[in-house]
Amino acid sequence: MSSTAHTHGAHEPVRKSTGRLVLAWLLVGIPLAYGVFQTLTQVAALFG
After folding, report:
1. CA dihedral for 20, 21, 22, 24, sign (positive or negative)
2. pTM for this structure?
3. What distance in Å separates the CA atoms of residue 45 and residue 16, rounded to the nearest whole number?
4. Distance separating alpha carbons of residues 27 and 18, to the nearest angstrom
5. In this structure, what DSSP letter does residue 11 have?
6. DSSP the chain
7. 42, exposed or middle or buried, with CB in 10 Å at 0-12, 13-18, 19+?
8. How far is the C-alpha of 32 from the C-alpha of 12, rounded, in Å?
9. Whole-Å CA distances, 42 to 8, 25, 28, 34, 45
């Protein structure tokens, strides 16, 4: 009895639009980076 399962589509590339992926990361990453920057700035002012 084999413990590995064979799937036919295991090596097919996923065809997602790279542009949409980049746009999604930018929509999340830019506000996140801004929030981290603001938090670190306020922490520095609090302890500095």
Report:
1. positive
2. 0.59
3. 43
4. 14
5. T
6. --SPPP-TTTTSPP---HHHHHHHHHHHHHHHHHHHHHHHHHHHHHH-
7. exposed
8. 33
9. 53, 25, 22, 12, 5
Residue identified by tokens 């938090």 is 39
Residue with tokens 């520095």: 44
Q: What is the tens place of the pLDDT at every residue in 1-48? A: 556 666 665 666 666 799 999 999 999 999 999 999 999 999 999 998
**Residue at token pair 């295991």:** 10
The span from the CA of 3 to the CA of 35, in Å, is 47
Identify residue 7 by its one-letter amino acid code. Answer: T
Instruction: Quote the pLDDT of residue 2.
Output: 56
